[in-house]
Design brief:
The chain is α/β, with parallel strands linked by helices. The chain is built from 15 helices and 21 strands. The longest helix is centred in the last third of the chain and has 24 residues. The termini are far apart. The model has no long low-confidence stretch (mean pLDDT 93). The protein binds 5'-deoxyadenosine and iron/sulfur cluster (SF4).
């Protein structure tokens, strides 16, 4: 079917919810559509196709998308030919709703079906029938679709997809399927192209990024291989699982100057009993020992984490263990969540949602308060230190710029004429729990000279 046979409005508007993997996937979708003569637009009014790339990780992400679909109702009424599509992690559980009456949605494509989108859109256009494609693949890595139009100073690059861990709270194995890794040669080729486009920082992405393995080529080797590419100065990765940190990977992070000294190490809970119920495969003691080993091996390491409060059956005493572990490890920052029951997970099937919402909220407040103090304490240790900062752009306040140091901490300083992508030195004068505030030591002339 060609454009000539069925001319339709080929302007696509894409909205992305959820994690960085979804942001990356939206780039893949843009690339697939661009190759099929679609153009992208920032205006939903002029779009012929509106795609929402959705997230299912917690109930509020889920609700946001439902509300958005309802909100698009009037636009659909005004523009009868408008095609609304749902992509991503909500695809799986939306199929039933889609098939029932006027759902406000014309097509649904799961995370492994994006190459089929042009054909699906054409079909909806021609037949007026709803389309869905949800099959999860054991092989699809989109190795042949390099997104070409990335912005900013950091390029995200998915090196593996899916997850085989089956943490009992998590919907990802259901929405994204089995774990699979990309051929390292293909990853290297993409990073070389990114470097040629001027990117100095790449972030290797995966639902379980450090379980990357391609025929015996593991994640430590991948970081080393990427670090050999000229022009790439900083390598980050997210999100890892504590179970996949062999000594060789810690060695690489410790000794490779391009590997950023920041590890996101999701704790999830501090009690070994709860960790077991979550199927995390480590105990409280093993986690703390790993964090200590990391700090010993990697001086200046920034450690961040994810934590859930109110996992079903979590008692007050078990929650206090989470407070204790976080106090002991002293993460630089933490993402904290109230447990949110997801359909199809083992926790939902076997445990229910037993902790009342008020209790979850109360635990959250305690945790957030403690973490604020710890983050502030950790940041205060940086006062007087000088960091190399990769400039990202303007800060919230006028006349100030912001960037990040190697540890991924946000650094704000007075505008000295530096541009996004410049590396400059900043001495830290004061801090908040989330930000380092400092003085740029590198002058604009020095930056330009450095660049030449
Ligand atoms: N409820 C609350 N938080 C969750 N996460 C994943 N699933 C759930 C859930 N059902 C959190 C975990 C994970 C982060 C990305 O989201 O902490 O690491
Ligand atoms: Fe949300 Fe997880 Fe899907 Fe990312 S992979 S969009 S966090 S459900």
């Amino acid at each position: 079917m060609t454009d000539k046979d069925h001319p339709h409005n080929r302007k696509v508007y894409i909205e992305t919810y959820g994690c960085q993997m979804n942001e990356y996937d939206s780039e893949i979708v843009r690339e697939v559509l661009r190759r099929n003569n679609y153009t992208l637009t920032d205006s939903q009014e002029e779009a012929g196709v509106i795609l929402l790339n959705t997230c299912a990780i917690r109930e509020n992400a889920h609700q946001k998308v439902h509300a958005r679909v309802r909100q698009l109702g009037p636009l659909r009424k005004r523009n009868e030919k408008l095609i609304v599509g749902i992509l991503g992690c909500m695809a799986q559980n939306l199929k039933k709703e889609l098939l029932e009456g006027d759902s406000g949605v014309d097509l649904i494509a799961g995370p492994d079906s994006y190459k089929a989108l042009p054909v699906m859109i054409d079909r909806v256009h021609v037949t007026g029938e709803k389309e869905y494609k949800l099959t999860l693949s054991e092989y699809e890595t989109y190795a042949d679709v390099f997104p070409t139009n990335r912005h900013g100073i950091n390029a995200w690059i998915a090196v593996m997809r899916g997850c085989d861990n089956y943490c009992t709270f998590c919907v990802v194995p259901m929405t994204r399927g089995r774990e699979r890794s990309r051929d390292p040669f293909n990853v290297i080729e993409e990073v070389k192209q990114l470097s040629a486009q001027g990117f100095k920082q790449v972030t290797l992405l995966g639902q379980n990024v450090n379980s990357y393995r391609f025929k015996g080529f593991d994640f430590a080797k991948l970081i080393t291989a990427v670090s050999r590419i000229d022009g790439i100065e900083r390598i980050r990765f997210t999100s890892p699982h504590p179970k996949d940190f062999p000594e060789s990977l810690l060695e690489v992070v410790a000794t490779n100057p391009k590997a950023c000294k920041h590890i996101h190490l999701p704790l999830q809970a501090g009690s070994s009993r709860v960790l077991d119920a979550m199927n995390r495969t480590y105990t409280r003691e093993e986690f703390v020992a790993l964090a200590q080993r990391m700090r010993e091996m990697i001086p200046g390491l920034v450690l961040t984490t994810d934590v859930i409060v109110g996992f079903p059956t979590e008692t007050e005493v078990e929650f206090e263990e989470t407070l204790e572990v976080m106090h002991e490890v002293k993460f630089d920052a933490a993402f904290m969540f109230k447990y949110s029951e997801r359909k199809g997970t083992l926790a939902q099937r076997n445990l229910g949602d037993t902790v009342p919402d008020e209790v979850k909220t109360d635990r959250m407040v305690q945790l957030v308060e403690q973490q604020r103090r710890i983050s502030y304490e950790r940041n205060q240790l940086h006062v007087g230190e000088t960091f190399e900062v990769l400039v990202e752009g303007e800060a919230k306040h006028k006349g100030q710029l912001m960037g990040r140091n190697d540890g991924n901490k946000i650094v704000v300083f007075s505008d000295n004429g530096a541009r996004p992508g410049d590396f400059i030195k900043v001495k830290v004068d004061e801090v908040t729990p989330n930000t380092l505030i400092g003085t740029a030591l590198t002058t604009t002339e020095a930056i330009r000279k450095f660049a030449v």
